[in-house]
Design goal:
With 294 residues, the chain is of the alpha+beta class. It has a domain at 13-135 and 218-284: Beta Polymerase, domain 2. The protein is 39% helix and 17% strand. Strands 1, 2, 3, 4, 6, 7 and 8 form a 7-stranded mixed beta sheet that branches. Helix 4 (141-162) crosses helix 5 and helix 4 packs antiparallel against helix 6 (196-207). The radius of gyration is 19 Å and the shape is globular.
């Protein structure tokens, strides 16, 4: 099955499982570094659902998402190259000016994973896990809402630097209007030479605005549902260990509260037409062969 909007493509089961196992190996190496340096992380979003509902990957899922408090994220970025830099590299707009995405990719060298929506990007996209830094939200509700609006807007602009054709989950005139706005924004950004790197720096500045203030809440502002992706310190700590594909991973202490906030009744399997993956356009395990068949 393939959705018209490009948000889902069914894999050959053997290819999907091979991909998941490569991602699992990346996760194991990531966790090893986190343990060595006493860095906190949690399994994020749909990966968190996989931990609770399947004790592993959601059956059709093709990625792993983790989140880290900003101080731990920054420390990981300082030490990973010394520890496992022979196997992995990091991709952000600060690392590659052509990478028009807000998500930090922790990538396996020598592989390729190019989602259909990212096929126009002129950068090296590999099999990876996604790492999301978590930053403080202010106690004041008005300031929180302002931070959410600004980070949402900057996230969208970064993506539109790279493509005029994002996935738009609308229909009819609303989709037509949104498509026109996206195309116009994309070409305006090109015309005025606004780079993903510049916008990403603006995003990081806004995400970290309140990190020196005491705050009850943290948020992964770079996720799609950032208005619901917040966690209180009481919900986050102490972290708990839970099984995932035969290894133990970290989850928020009150993971049920967090996942229900994000997804509602997350223990119910969604119907096939509501399932989403990252729709690979090119998938190469390092043997030079595209494993995805049209």
């Amino acid at each position: 099955m393939k959705k018209e909007d490009g948000s889902y493509r069914e894999y050959d089961p053997q290819v999907l499982r091979r991909l998941q196992l490569v991602q699992l190996d990346i996760l194991k190496d990531f966790i090893a570094v986190c343990k060595k340096y006493d860095l906190d992380y949690i399994m994020l979003g749909g990966t968190g659902i996989g931990v609770v509902r399947h004790q592993g990957f959601i059956p059709w899922d093709d990625d792993i998402d983790v989140a880290m408090p900003r101080k731990d994220y920054d420390r990981f970025m300082e030490v990973y190259e010394k520890e496992i830099g022979d196997k992995y590299k990091v991709l952000t707009p600060l690392k590659d000016k052509n990478y028009a995405c807000n998500v930090t990719h922790f990538q396996k060298k020598g592989t390729k994973f190019v989602p259909y929506i990212s096929r126009r990007l002129k950068c090296d996209l590999c099999i990876d896990i996604d790492i999301f830094p978590m930053d403080n939200m202010p106690e004041d509700k008005r300031k929180r809402n302002s931070q959410l609006r600004k980070t949402w807007f900057l996230n969208k602009l970064i993506f539109l630097c790279g493509t005029p054709d994002p996935i738009i989950p609308l229909k009819g005139f609303q989709k037509f209007a949104a498509t026109y706005i996206c195309k116009a924004t994309h070409y305006a950004l090109k015309l005025f030479h606004v780079s993903p790197r510049f916008l990403y720096k603006c995003l990081v500045r806004e995400c970290t605005r309140y990190n020196k203030e005491e705050s009850r809440y943290m948020n992964a502002f770079e996720v799609t549902m950032s208005d619901r992706a917040y966690l209180s310190k009481e919900e986050m700590y102490p972290l708990r260990e839970m099984p995932f594909e035969g290894i133990m991973v970290s989850m928020p202490n009150q993971y049920d509260v967090y996942l229900k906030r994000l997804f509602g009744d997350y223990m119910q399997m969604p119907p096939e037409d509501k399932r989403v993956n990252h729709c690979p356009y090119i998938l190469d395990f390092g043997d030079g062969i595209n494993a995805v068949k049209e």
